[in-house]
């Protein structure tokens, strides 16, 4: 046993008093004052064997027990026996026996072992740890004396139990090698300086699980964990790894350490109601067994389980009844190995070979449902003695690909090789202070620090961790209907980032015996053409899909934002790609053709009127209406109709300069002619006799001067416009961002409005003069038609201004072209339609006598003073002024 110093007692007395024995110290440190330790209770069952050096072993041979109290003599009753853990214990026993039989490893020494049951519970694990610290048997250790033969402890399976055991062993500097405790908390070397493990750290497992979730786009997952350090640290690690990814945790539930059915049903209710169809479980086999039993009773299906290494290879779940509920489970298992003698060795275990071992009796009861001995409290029938271990007893006989058992095997051999190296140490070449070696008759536990075994080196880093390597396990249906653990990939933590995870997806089977990857999302993926909008107060995995705005696209699924298209591009209808913007201008399409036809028809009508007037130029109606001005007006109107054609077609620099100048000059010419005609009409009706001076200033030459002068003003304005800031073609994207509208920019807005203003000024002056003469007597009063024509002209252009300003794109040009055509038609019809009606349809009214009936003064004066026959250059006069032959004198 150990020689306990006062210092060691200081650290261990509080722990030891809770278990097997109590050690008492007095104030004096003298040896005579130390009272012997007295045995309070014995800890059974256990496997023990003598040896020169002893290795301890702690395994969860039972699980699911009731809460123990703190009575020193309390023995917690086991509830369920675990054949799988019993196989681990026998693997340690086999490894020790192989080492003792080896001529290569520790040839002159033997190893002993002490194997105890932790019952998968921290308090019971504490009892087992103190039992391991005692001698080979409790009866042989009545006092705390002698040096310890215990070199190391192989254990424990659960991280919570390992924490307790490690802290008990720490004051004695006894190394502990865990075969199944993966909690990341053990990397704290200050708290666990003597802890080592042959299973990878959970930091690597949670990293692997996070990569798995990302790999299959499971963005909404649930997490269920056990109520212990393993589950707590694993959950923390997973949440840490998921930061920065698209995966969110929908819920976090905890299975009580002491199983509570009501709590389990609440967890199942959460799983059923959640949209998360993938559930990650960090729990031990013992906790999952009753939970999954109730899970099957509730008949819940459709859950894709992601299992941690603690239960992904648990043989207890391989029965056919589990497949409808657990089939397709995927998880990360410990790296498997090969133990050649394990299967044969397990077959030697029977009640006949171990008649006094209660664990073998419980094994038989668990496998066959019978008692190998006389009926006991279990009330099971007596076994026949013909029972044979079969392969279907997978919980115990699963030796084809041992994983946890192989970890136990490696751990034992690691200790043996380390001890072997210490014993072969040559003086002066040792690993300790002053290159010293360990004493063969007194090897201290802390000297066993570097572990390796032949065939596979087991190296531990500064944190006591081994090489991170996992097999990816998928639960698939075997030929017999049972669940088989199929290797579908691996995770190698030594590889470069992003290359650790290798999955053979074609081998996978998912929940419900499906081949398609399950979907587990809070919100369906946003297709290209939309973006994600996170819902307020919810995780980022819960979002709405918002279609991209016009001019923006997203060409990936689940885009966070939409991107703008380049300047000359626009989004398609699906908002997935940028396409060149449509180029628009007033082309020869339906609208352009309609305007062209109207323009040509208007020009043809004007030419037709011109021909009618020219053919009937000697008639009274034509001559009385000042035929020269009429021809000027018709000439100008023809160009007014035709200049609207310049607005149709793709704008060029020349067409843009011609558009506004052409229509402004032609309209100015037209209005100038009408103004001259209005002045003549007004003067003719207001003069008293043909020789009045006012008519002398409105003769044909003066009329031409008026027309030329008024038109010349507009020409000067247009010339200045073209010189200073001429119109030019531009690409307009303001009216419609999805289109490029080719239009003519006016260059100078001031010049543009000056042009329109001047035309408006002419029209207003003409309207005022015509309005003053509208009520003058006469059978054919020209002033009425001029008034009405100018009124229509002004109405059209007053309506044009707001319509032009508000019209988008090509419609602005269409509006301007329509205004030109409408005003031209208004002038044409109002001024010439009545005359053409008389000339063509009422020729009896086209006589001097008819016209003189009411407007004698106007006719006489206009014919005597103003109008000349264009062909013969003779004045058409009245009878009072004509010659004896009736012909008019020369003008």
TrEMBL record:
Q: What is the lineage of its organism?
A: Eukaryota, Metazoa, Chordata, Craniata, Vertebrata
**Gene3D superfamilies in alphabetical order:** 3.40.50.2300, GPCR, family 3, nine cysteines domain
Q: Coiled-coil ranges per the record?
A: none
Write the protein's name: Olfactory receptor C family, v1
The residue ranges crossing the membrane are 591-614, 629-649, 661-685, 705-723, 750-773, 785-805, 817-840
Indicate the family of this protein. Belongs to the G-protein coupled receptor 3 family.
> Where does this one sit in the cell?
Cell membrane
User: What membrane topology is given?
Assistant: Multi-pass membrane protein
Keywords annotated in UniProt: Cell membrane, G-protein coupled receptor, Glycoprotein, Membrane, Receptor, Signal, Transducer, Transmembrane, Transmembrane helix
State whether keyword Cell membrane applies.
yes
Has keyword Membrane? yes
Q: Which domain of life is it from?
A: Eukaryota
What's a Pfam family in this record?
ANF_receptor
GO cellular component terms listed in the entry, alphabetical order: plasma membrane
InterPro entries noted in UniProt: ANF_lig-bd_rcpt (IPR001828), GPCR_3 (IPR000337), GPCR_3_9-Cys_dom (IPR011500), GPCR_3_9-Cys_sf (IPR038550), GPCR_3_C (IPR017978), GPCR_3_Ca_sens_rcpt-rel (IPR000068), GPCR_3_vmron_rcpt_2 (IPR004073), Peripla_BP_I (IPR028082)
Q: Which GO terms describe its molecular function?
A: G protein-coupled receptor activity
Record's signal peptide: 1-21
Q: What is its main location?
A: membrane
Q: Which residues form the G-protein coupled receptors family 3 profile domain?
A: 591-855
């Amino acid at each position: 046993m150990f020689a306990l110093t006062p210092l060691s007692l200081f650290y261990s007395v509080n722990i030891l008093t809770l278990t097997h024995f109590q050690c008492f110290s007095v104030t004096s440190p003298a040896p005579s004052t130390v009272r012997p330790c007295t045995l309070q209770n014995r800890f059974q069952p256990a496997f023990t064997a003598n040896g020169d050096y002893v290795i301890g072993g702690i395994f969860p041979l039972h699980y699911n027990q009731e809460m123990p109290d703190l009575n020193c003599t309390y023995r917690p009753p086991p509830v369920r026996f675990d054949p799988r853990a019993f196989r681990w214990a026998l693997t340690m026993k086999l490894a020790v026996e192989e080492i003792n039989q080896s001529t290569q490893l520790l040839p002159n020494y033997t190893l002993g072992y002490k194997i105890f049951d932790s019952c998968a519970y921290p308090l019971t694990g504490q009892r087992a740890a103190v039992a391991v610290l005692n001698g080979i048997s409790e009866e042989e250790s009545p006092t705390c004396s002698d040096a310890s033969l215990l070199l190391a402890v192989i254990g424990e399976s659960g991280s919570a139990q390992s924490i307790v055991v490690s802290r008990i062993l720490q004051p004695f500097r006894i190394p502990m090698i865990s075969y199944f405790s993966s909690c990341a908390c053990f990397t704290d070397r200050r708290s666990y300086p003597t802890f080592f493990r042959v299973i990878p750290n959970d930091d690597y497992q949670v990293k692997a699980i996070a990569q798995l979730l990302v790999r299959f786009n499971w963005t909404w997952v649930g997490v269920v964990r056990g109520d212990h350090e393993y589950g707590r640290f694993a959950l923390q690690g997973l949440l840490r790894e998921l930061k920065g990814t698209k995966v969110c945790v929908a819920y976090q539930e905890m299975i009580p350490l002491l199983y509570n059915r009501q709590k389990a049903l609440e967890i199942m209710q959460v799983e059923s109601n959640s949209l998360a169809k993938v559930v990650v479980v960090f729990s031990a086999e013992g906790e999952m067994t009753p939970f999954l039993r109730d899970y099957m009773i509730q008949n819940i299906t459709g859950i894709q389980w992601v299992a941690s290494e603690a239960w992904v290879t648990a043989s207890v779940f391989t029965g056919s009844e589990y497949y409808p509920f657990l089939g397709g489970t995927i998880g990360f298992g410990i790296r498997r190995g090969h133990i050649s003698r394990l299967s044969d060795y397990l077959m030697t275990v029977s009640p006949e070979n171990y008649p006094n071992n209660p664990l073998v009796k419980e094994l038989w009861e668990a496998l066959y449902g019978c008692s190998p001995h006389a009926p006991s409290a279990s009330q099971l029938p007596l076994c026949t003695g013909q029972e044979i271990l079969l392969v279907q007893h997978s919980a115990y006989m699963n030796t084809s690909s041992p994983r946890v058992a192989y970890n136990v095997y490696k751990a034992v051999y690691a200790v043996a090789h380390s001890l072997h190296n210490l014993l072969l140490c040559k003086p002066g070449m040792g690993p300790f202070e002053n290159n010293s070696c360990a004493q063969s008759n007194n090897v201290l536990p802390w000297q066993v620090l570097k572990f390796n075994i032949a065939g596979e080196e087991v190296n531990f880093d500064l944190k006591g961790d081994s090489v991170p390597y996992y097999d990816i396990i998928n639960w698939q249906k075997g030929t017999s209907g049972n669940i088989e653990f199929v290797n579908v990939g691996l995770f190698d933590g030594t590889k470069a980032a992003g290359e650790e995870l290798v999955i053979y997806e074609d081998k996978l089977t998912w929940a419900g015996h499906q081949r398609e990857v399950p979907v587990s999302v809070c919100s369906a993926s946003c297709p290209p053409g939309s973006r994600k909008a996170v819902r307020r107060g919810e995780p980022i995995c819960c979002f709405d899909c918002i279609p991209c705005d016009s001019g923006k696209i997203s060409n990936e699924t689940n885009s966070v934002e939409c991107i703008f298209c380049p300047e000359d591009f626009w989004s398609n209808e699906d908002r997935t790609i940028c396409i060149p913007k449509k180029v628009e201008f007033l082309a020869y399409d339906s609208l352009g053709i309609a305007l062209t036809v109207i323009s040509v028809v208007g020009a043809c009508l004007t030419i037709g009127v011109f021909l009618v007037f020219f053919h009937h130029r000697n008639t009274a109606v034509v001559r009385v209406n000042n035929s020269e001005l009429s021809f000027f007006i018709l000439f100008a109107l023809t160009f007014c109709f035709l200049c609207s054609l310049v607005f149709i077609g793709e704008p060029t620099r020349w067409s843009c300069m011609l558009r506004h100048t052409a229509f402004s000059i032609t309209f100015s010419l037209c209005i100038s002619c009408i103004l001259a005609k209005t002045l003549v009409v007004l003067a003719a009706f207001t003069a008293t006799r043909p020789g009045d001076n006012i008519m002398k200033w409105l003769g044909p030459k003066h009329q031409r001067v008026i027309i030329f002068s008024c038109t010349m003003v507009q020409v000067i304005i247009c010339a200045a416009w073209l010189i200073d800031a001429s119109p030019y073609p531009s690409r307009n994207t303001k009216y419609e961002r999805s289109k490029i509208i080719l239009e003519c920019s006016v260059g100078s807005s001031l010049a543009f409005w000056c042009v329109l203003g001047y035309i408006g000024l002419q029209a207003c002056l003409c309207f005022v003069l015509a309005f003053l003469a509208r009520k003058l007597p006469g059978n054919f009063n020209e002033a009425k038609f001029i008034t009405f024509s100018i009124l229509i002209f002004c109405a059209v252009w007053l309506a044009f201004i707001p319509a032009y300003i508000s019209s988008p794109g090509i419609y602005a040009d269409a509006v301007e072209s329509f205004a030109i055509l409408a005003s031209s038609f208004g002038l044409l019809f109002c001024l010439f339609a009545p005359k053409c009606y008389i000339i063509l349809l009422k020729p009896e009214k086209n006589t001097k006598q008819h016209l003189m009936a009411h407007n004698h003064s106007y006719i006489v004066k206009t014919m005597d003073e103003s109008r000349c026959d264009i062909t013969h250059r003779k004045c058409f006069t009245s009878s009072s002024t004509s010659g004896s032959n009736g012909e008019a004198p020369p003008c």
